[in-house]
Amino acid sequence: MDFSVVAVAREDDSAVEEPLRVAVAADRLGYREVWAGEGPTWDAFVLATAIGRSTESVALTAGPVPVSVRDPLTIVRGAASCAAVTGRPVGVALGTSSKRVVEGVHGRARVRPAAVLEESAAAVRALLPVAPGEPVVPGSGFRRRHRAPGGPLTVAAFGDRAVGTAARHADRMLLDMVSPDQVRELRAKLHAAADRAGRTPPTLAAWLPAAVDPGPASLAQILRGIAGYLTVPGYREVFAAAGFGEAVRRAAAGEDPRVPEAAAGVMGLVGDLDAVRARVEAYAEAGLDEIALVPATAGDPGGERTLRAFARLPGWA
């Protein structure tokens, strides 16, 4: 199993600079890659550049960035600019994001999201390897001055059409907070789609909330994150099947879902080291290639305790 680390601003009362603390801890502990998450607080490419300037060697991936609010050239230019400033390989991750973010935050229409993801992934795939001196875009009259960013193209996927896009264009497909059973199902879909496309299947990664020996603050932070998934199709069914149907019902009714503590272990890596190790093994058995740790930081600044514990697991990469 490969481990990477997610540095993303939580839209709560956590410190704005918390993602940088997470990234610095990950670099110091020897993790190979940090994801710079996009959100209302941080621009992914600015955050990735700040991480690159604050760390020694960790590789960078910016995103997922919502394809409905950035055109392909803007995405590739951002990655190439970050790579030029940091001297690191920089990958990009693409996703459709949500109506709440695209329309509610950016003021853009989120229409045809699966089609836009396909169009953007194809264009970014073509633009990423453009070398210095070659046209930035064919016929534009402008030539690439930065080197290619050098990192992988990742596509965040859950629905069938997005999985197909990842199979056709990506080096890696990304899932977000999934159970081992969902990993198994989505991996099978990915491999089938890659066979149809005549490509080697992309590797499969998942962002998973993580907290080893969590205190009350860490656990509460993870449960707040889970609450946002209780009404999302594909997730609500998993929580209901796991025995949390009442929390799903309350969330659908607009009430406080009162997420039980046990829910933290359904789609994440939460508990003592033995419990977390067993969960890692379950994800590996289901076919996950990479776990991108989203460490709880409340009560554990920078996620240091959790990241250090994972770095001690046998066979981590």
Automatic annotation (TrEMBL):
Its EC number is 1.-.-.-. InterPro entries: F420-G6PD/mer, F420_Rv3093c, Luciferase-like_dom, Luciferase-like_sf. It comes from the Bacteria. Residues 1-289 form the Luciferase-like domain. SUPFAM superfamilies: Bacterial luciferase-like. GO terms for molecular function: oxidoreductase activity. This is LLM class F420-dependent oxidoreductase.
